[in-house]
Specification:
The chain is an alpha+beta fold. Helices cover 59% and strands 14% of the residues. The chain has five helices and three strands. The chain has a three-stranded antiparallel sheet. The longest helix has 20 residues. The chain starts with 6 loop residues before the first helix and ends in a 9-residue tail after the last helix. 12% of the residues are buried.
Length: 102
């Protein structure tokens, strides 16, 4: 059965900086300082984006002394990938379906 793709998650990942953050976190767990260095974003801007990613469930925090590390939650991306895979499968099977015009 075809499920719809989560529009809120697409919106969250549709921001170029957040997508870059997710790409970086797919490689390793990073703290805010690392993310500022890697993205070139201001710390306050980065913190706002991290809040959006946390609230969407894309990342989780890991306190370490005075630093906060961020870790990607791969199951969220697996779910999104599955939704797109279902959409693609539906498109393949429906490629010959054509609704007649009135």
């Amino acid at each position: 059965m075809l499920t719809s793709v989560d529009p809120d998650l697409i919106r969250v990942l549709g921001d170029p900086l957040r997508l870059k953050i997710v790409t970086l976190l797919a490689r390793e767990t990073l703290c805010t300082t690392h993310l500022v260095e890697e993205t070139g974003a201001k710390q306050t801007n980065l913190s706002n984006h991290m809040k959006v990613l946390r609230e969407a469930g894309v990342v989780q925090t890991e306190p370490c002394g005075r630093f906060t590390y961020y870790k990607l939650r791969p199951e969220v991306l697996d779910s999104l990938a599955g939704q797109f895979a279902e959409l693609a499968a539906s498109a393949r099977t429906a490629s010959e379906n054509k609704r007649a015009c009135p």
